Protein: UDP-N-acetylmuramoyl-L-alanyl-D-glutamate--2,6-diaminopimelate ligase
Amino acid sequence: MTSTEIDSRPHGLPPLPADTLAEQLGARLVGDAAQLTGATIDSRAVRPGDLWIAVQGENNHGAEFAAGAVELGCGAILTDTAGEQLIRESIAADRIPALLLSEDPRAHAARAADLIYAEPSASMSVVGVTGTNGKTSITTMIDRTLQSMGVGTAVVGTNGTFVTPAGEGTRTVPTVRTTPEAPDLHGMLAMMRESGVQTASLEVSSHAMILHRADSVRFACAVFTNLSQDHLDFHGTMEAYFDAKAMLFAGDRARSGVICVDDDWGRRLADRAEIPSVTYTTDPDREADFRVTSMTPEGFGTRFTVAWDGGDDFDLVATLPGTHYVANTLGVALALHSCGYDFDVVAEHVATAGTVPGRMELVHDDGIRAVVDYSHTPDALEKTLVSLRALPNVRRILTVMGAGGDRDRAKRPLMGEVAARLSDTVVITDDNPRTEDPASIREQVAAGAHRAAEQSGADVIDQGDRAEAIARALRLAEVGDVVIVAGKGAETGQDFGDRVIDFDDRAHVRAHFTRKDQDSTHA
Structure:
């Protein structure tokens, strides 16, 4: 299926008068009312007739860039009193468009865009998925399952934004964040509605909740996967991180909730949720509405049985290995059922369509199994390695891994420890160093790896060049071994701060075996 790039906005909506918008927001209108046809927070992305939203950023006030937004034809500006002063100091009075003044323009940005785009999320089913791990897996599995059922879908998240109207090819929308800024998100939802999308699945990051990016989205269902250490550089504490995730389950956010209670954070959320919610677990000894009572390997995946109080036990099939994919599959089925889809039909299609690019992706399976996975937290990496160890006839596990720069430093030695405790060989390499020194990041990862290796006996190798690290692990592998390349999944670039180079872990794995096959042919 080919993928083409499309505009992120709708084209057939009537304009909204600025005075009407100001009244509904409770903002003060200064100047003549304009007709508004779009919204953006990025001054460089302004289109004629847009509401441009100028907010205080981490280092600058957006209003400092007002001249550029006015030059591009913005119809009105939503800002605060500090922004108004900056605008009046930098732009001639006769060129200043209508101003909508608010004490907190960032908090009003989502509602403003929602109104300009005629409340798009009210016209489709939107599933919001939050949690440390599993967001991309569940949203992608929802998307692929519904496509298999002939439903028009869209998915927004880490891997990008993809729109697939029923019976048509997939189209892409360029995005740079897991959850886009609120004006962009509502514009995309309106475009999806215009394209015939019936259900959209959306990754909702903790940053998005704190920064109001998912505000005014009417979620049909909110899904919680799990919580483990990540993003503490932003949230500070696990409690604050949890509070951000729990915001999605407030009474004004979603009609229903689906909550995994495999960890205690999930149980706490179930007790705290303000919306009607069902719980599920892969631990038969935990209390939940739906409990996985048995799991049996089936191919590269798992067949599992679920018990519930509403009737007879039932079976589902996870197409990928590991308890966490059992949990993901059950979460997908429950979420889609809560959106009104027939459970038996969903169960049939998720069993064949529930794969995810870069998530436990089996890239090679002939003597040596090579897997690429996005696991980039200690908890995710541990689940991945435990799942691979449980596969039939595994001889050794060789892990290629690292840690990202400009992110939570505390998790780096923890990830090294997990890798060396659960692998036979660990090749520590560069992930996305961004602006940090790559060698320093590897050293922090290695500190945890070497401590664990004293007990496990794992070999720990430092190889900064990621291409060579992958090749080295594959050269060391023998029949029966599993090589796991962790951390970047389906990403197609490697970020060094001043540049991003083309890099796809899967392509490097395939290239190794292609060269190996050619060498054996010519030998």
Observations:
- DSSP finds 17 helices and 27 strands in the chain.
- The first helix runs from residue 18 to 25.
- The mean pLDDT is 94.
